[in-house]
Specification:
By secondary structure, the protein is of the alpha/beta class. It is built from twelve helices and ten strands. Helix 2 packs parallel to helix 3.
Length: about 300
């Protein structure tokens, strides 16, 4: 099987809402702006896409719109994870049928499976489809991380598990993964503020929240590093670090939706239990958006 390259910047897309409904026009426009900015890929219905509060039909529809709007110009890596293996299998099969290029599978949350349970979960999903699978380790949200030993087993046993989104905040773990995995296995940063140090330790890019609003800049940061212009990559990182930081001043995706709303790209609407930003933190975000030249 030919390995799909995930080198580059990929946007963890917000799901725009208009009241309680998905704003399909805003979603399509957002994807078009991503493509125009030269992004490498888009990730619909992940954490930033508020997947926990989408119905199965809405989940399917967002992937369908994303595949159609991307029109093979950029990769579509559909979020299909669940803490129920059967549901993750079902969602991943559906994403493959809809034309997604790959699937992003978060570690099962809440039920805290053992290392063996995690291995069996991901292997079961991998065996159900032929598209590449990107593992997603984010212990801050899931309560567990995917152990390095489990990632190594999956890489060895499942030809279509070819990458991991690492969002544990540890450069040391990236080093551990890089040492334990074959060179062909790809690591992506799951945190905008850690993209540079992760890439210095062997990551090939980022799945970014910030690129919802500054796609060209995040792509430039990654591509400059990949071509060896570390100084330029560091310059871009330094300029936008305050934004990378303040987009997480409240739970994601509340701040990025507020930022997009300021640019008129979508409404700030999020679904409960998420809610709008506190006025003081919103003022902090607005100040940062202005100081970094985004507004």
């Amino acid at each position: 099987m030919q390995t799909l390259s995930f080198a580059g910047a990929h946007t963890a897309l917000v799901t725009p809402f208009k009241g309680d409904s998905i704003d399909e026009t805003a979603l399509t426009s957002l994807i078009e702006s991503q493509v125009a900015a030269g992004i490498s890929g888009i990730i619909p219905v992940g954490t930033t896409g508020e997947s926990p509060t989408l119905s199965h039909e809405e989940h399917r529809r967002v992937i369908e719109i994303s595949v159609k709007a991307a029109a093979k110009r950029v990769l579509v890596i559909a979020g299909t994870g669940s803490n129920a293996t059967s549901e993750a299998v079902e969602l991943t099969i559906e994403a493959e049928k809809l034309g997604a290029d790959a699937a992003l599978l978060v570690a099962p949350y809440y039920n805290k499976p053992s290392a063996e349970g995690l291995y069996r979960h991901f292997r079961k999903v991998a065996e159900a489809v032929s598209i590449p699978i990107v593992l997603y380790s984010i212990p801050g949200r899931c309560g567990i991380e995917i152990p390095v030993s489990v990632v190594a087993r999956l890489a060895a046993d499942c030809p279509n598990i070819t990458a991991i989104k690492e969002a544990g905040g540890s450069v040391e773990r990236v080093n551990q993964l890089r040492t334990a995995l074959p060179a062909s296995f790809q690591i992506l940063s799951g945190d905008d503020s850690l993209t540079l140090p992760f890439m210095a330790s062997g990551a090939v890019g980022v799945i970014s929240v910030a690129s919802n609003i500054i796609p060209a800049e995040v792509q430039s940061l990654v591509q400059n590093f990949l071509k060896g212009d570390l100084a330029k990559a560091q310059e871009i990182h330094a300029r936008y670090y305050p934004l990378f930081r303040d987009l997480f001043i409240e739970p994601n995706p509340v701040p990025i939706k507020a930022a997009l709303a300021e640019k008129g790209l979508c409404a700030h609407d999020v679904r409960l239990p998420l809610c709008e930003m506190d006025q003081s933190t919103k003022e902090t975000l607005l100040k940062t958006l202005k100081s970094t030249g985004v507004l």
